[in-house]
Amino acid sequence: MALLKRSTPSASDDGRMTLMEHIRELRNRLIKAILAVVAGTVLGFVFFEPIWKFLKQPYCRLPQAHQLDKDKCLLFVNGVFDSFFVNLKVALMFGLVVSAGFWLYQLWAFVTPGLYRNERRYTVAFLGLAVPLFTAGAALAYFIMDKGLGLLLGFAPEDTLNLLTINDYLNFTLGMLAIFGVSFLMPLLMVFLNVVGVLRFATVAKHQRMVVFLLFVFSAVATPSQDPISMLMLALPMVGLFYVAQAIMFFRDRKRDAAEAAHARAIEEELDGPVTTSDPET
Questions:
Q1: Range of the domain at 250
Q2: Would you say 137 and 52 are in contact if contact means Cβ atoms under 8 Å apart?
Q3: Which of 96, 127, 171, 270 keeps 20 to 30 A from 107, CA to CA?
Q4: What is the model's pLDDT at position 126?
Q5: Which of 152, 166, 154 is nearest to 223 (CA)?
Q6: Are the beta carbons of 193 and 199 closer than 8 angstroms?
Q7: Does the keyword Transmembrane apply (predicted)?
Q8: Counted domains in the chain
Q9: 3-state secondary structure of 8
């Protein structure tokens, strides 16, 4: 229990923490976050069957021609340890998702003391928007996954049967969910960099065509299936979110430039104002 005891930063007179206090604080936060993930992983093992049934639905929605048994949705196990590792992967992913609120809070609590008040507010808004955007991307991947799988498996000759292993399918599924979810966060990162003054709208607008092209290239390379349907279903929402982020950056920069111009005029008027001098005879 001593490892989980919160350290009290009181080493320096200006309220700053020493290096060792930072290390102890990071250790305590990491231990708490890991324990939360472990607890979520245990729940994942307990509720493996309904979780796996949910993850398997995109494959089960495929036409019957791709199934070995016309009445059942079957995947195959090749290795001795494949079943265990599939359970472990599913449980770990479930644990990461379920405990995300707690370990994100631990990360936030560790970073917050080094931020200004306005930066803390922006970070809270960033995290608040990141969760629904990631969820939207993962949900899109879940609902279009069967289209990509059907297209790829459809290239097999008519006299062959696809024996998809459970491990390959799980890797494909988790990769699609993660890639789509993280990709939907890229426009939010653009806005965040603009808010903190790192990235300007003029810079993005100057390279707009190149950015759109790179989004399509990224979609083609990042999607695990690399089929045109999945690529377009990832690229088109990313381009749309990119233009939304660009519009937000435009209005923010215009407001910021107007405020800076007004501040500069106020300083100039103050410097150009009447100068009073004292009478040396008084």
A1: 185-268
A2: no
A3: 171
A4: 77
A5: 152
A6: yes
A7: yes
A8: 2
A9: coil
